[in-house]
Structure prediction request, 253 residues.
Amino acid sequence: TINEATFAATSNGENISVKGKHRLANDVERVVQEHLTYVREEMCDGWDLIHEEGEMKVYRREVEENGIVVDPLKIFHAIQGVTGHEICHYFWEYQHRMEWETTLDSTKIIEALDQDTVIFFQMHKRVWPTAQRDSCFWSHIRCISNSEEDQPTWLVVNYTTPHPLAPIKPPQVRLIANVAMICETIINEPPLNPKDIKRENIQCKLAYVAFVNPGGWVPSAAVRNVAKREYPRFLRRFTSYVIEQTRDKPILF
Ligand code: H13
Prediction:
């Protein structure tokens, strides 16, 4: 519910409340902080490097809950010529999503909670040998300043939430997810005047973290094979898309 008298318009023309906190603000805060702590943890016992491709490294920890595979996943990558803000912008903005997502049938915004937080309903492609999956999650984008000199950290978090506009309709199965994209921008050999920074001087260090529960039983081997193939494929395609989109645009710091 919108309880404040001040409104702003989102890019697709809906009104959202901009004053005061929305009903999921505390949840968003907690999950963002958890990701910032978790991403800095050392990758030690139990983490397997399952895929390496150039600068991209995909790690996974094998975990099952009641026989359901819920393997945590972490990907590290470094992308030349783009900023963390650009990566997060394209990951969060739904207008671009269907151009890089190959695992979705549809995506839509069902509520805007504030300018940086929206609730998505998505229909996923049937990639595994059982029922089709959908998902309903808040998606939040944020910029965190670390110090005056450093470039800020940008992040996007996608976190499952129930919503009256998205009831679960069996046989449809709902994915449960907690996903974060966390990016830092590195400027190599910074010129004296910041205006002279060129794309060849910049690099984005990216961490992508995913906890996904398929929401119902799927054969373990099938889920693990799909994940091992699809996550690197997603990151490859998504980062090429951002490079392509930003190539001739001014740098978005
Ligand atoms: O992160 C990716 N896409 C986001 C934008 O569409 C949505 C994602 C999400 C997934 C599920 C529920 C809620 C949000 O954050 C890219 C995802 C790539 C997925 C590759 C498929 C892997 C299959 C793993 C099987 C685990 C059950």
In short: Residues 19-246 form a domain with the Alpha-D-Glucose-1,6-Bisphosphate; Chain A, domain 4 fold (CATH 3.30.530.20). Residues 51 and 81 are 23 Å apart (CA to CA). The pocket of H13 is lined by residues 97, 101, 103-104, 122, 135, 137, 158, 175, 177, 179, 212, 214, 223, 226-227, 230-231, 234 (CB under 6 Å).
